[in-house]
Amino acid sequence: MKNRTRKLIWWSTVIGISLWLVLGLASSLAKTPNASALFISPLGVPSLTPTPFFRFPVVSNAPISGYFDHKGSYRESNQLVTFFDGRHSDSGNGFWFTCPSPVGDDWVGCEVAASSEIACPDNKELWYDAHYGTDFEYVADWRTGSSCNLGKFQGITRPVYAPAPGKVDYVGFNDPYNGNYIRLVHDLNKDGNYDNDGLRSYYLHFADGGISSSIVRGAYVSEGQYLGLGGMTGKASTPHMHFEVQRLISGQWFPVDPFSWTGADNDPWPYANYNYPLWHYYNYIPATYPRCSRTIAHTAKSWSMATLIQVIRLVGSPVVPTAPIQLSSLMGEQSLVQC
Fewest CB atoms within 10 A around its CB: which of 81, 240, 241, 335? Predict the structure, then answer.
């Protein structure tokens, strides 16, 4: 009798949990017209309709040292820096980061009153003025002090893979700023034409001899295809990948921020209407997520009891992830977690 009672309790629990999950998923899907297109920026709500396209991160497990500067006109150095999430420096707050020629100097903003790197805490530094890309560092210890040390990182490289399908539009070598670099054009609307969507991306600072021999003008690349070994050629004080997205606007190419704009005020970037969120997180939760909001939006597959318990643990308690969380074992390959 006791065994029968335990079994009844067990199956009642399983059925109850299953109904709870199904109702929760149905509620999420009902609130989201196209759940498969759900996209939440890691640090806020994007200002424009999301168009997930470029895999994030471009370089896996790479810290980001520099973000897109939204403050000022294109190529305007005004010693002011504003990031996509609204963090910004005020006039006079920052310092010159110096490097030997031909690298040159850059103005790094600071969120607090500071006129030197010593006075500006590392977590308040905004790298850097008139910077129009995202910098993925190849080493965790990328800081060098108040001036760069080019010898510290000699020989450090990382493999770089295409974050989206594209066609090779240009391959450049020994550029004083870009170093060895690749430019891809993209078929955003997936009509088979890569030349009419007005979207292109740059990959800078490949190592000498590092660009793959298969990357030649006119060649097509798939997402995840090997592009080459990243280095620090051109204007680079550390080994990193400068990733930049540009849109064709009124016949001219201008950079846009794939993070879009999540700040409380209006986006100060002059081409804000083209700052669509373009990151495709693909089952990836960056370690910088503040916490999970306990919402899952996707059609459930056939889950075991153990998997149901995992999901309950995941969505039942907000957490601060210390590492990327892969969800393909819990849900379909296109599943997304809203955090």
Answer: 335
Segment 16-53, tens digit of pLDDT: 655 555 454 444 333 322 322 333 334 445 557 788 99
Burial of 116 (0-12, 13-18, 19+ CB in 10 A): exposed
Of the candidates 196, 187, 183, which has an alpha carbon nearest to the alpha carbon of residue 245? 183
- Structural tokens at position 103: 């690298």
| Contact in structure between 230 and 202 (CB atoms under 8 Å) | no
- Note the pTM of the prediction, 2 decimals: 0.72
Angle among Cα 206, 126, 72 to the nearest 5 degrees reads 90
| Domain positions in the chain | 2-39+285-338, 54-280
Give the pLDDT score at 329: 34
Cα–Cα distance for residue pair 294/92, rounded to 1 Å: 42
Residue 47: how many other CB atoms lie within 10 Å: 18
DSSP state of 77: -
What is the four-CA torsion angle of 110, 116, 118, 122, rounded to 10 degrees?
20
How far is CA 210 from its chain centroid? 23
**Band (221; pLDDT cuts 50, 70, 90):** very high
pLDDT tens figures, 117-170: 999 999 999 999 999 999 999 999 999 888 888 888 989 999 999 999 999 999
Supply the CATH classification number for the domain 54-280.
Answer: 2.70.70.10
- Taking a C-beta distance cutoff of 8 angstroms, is the pair 282, 335 a contact? no
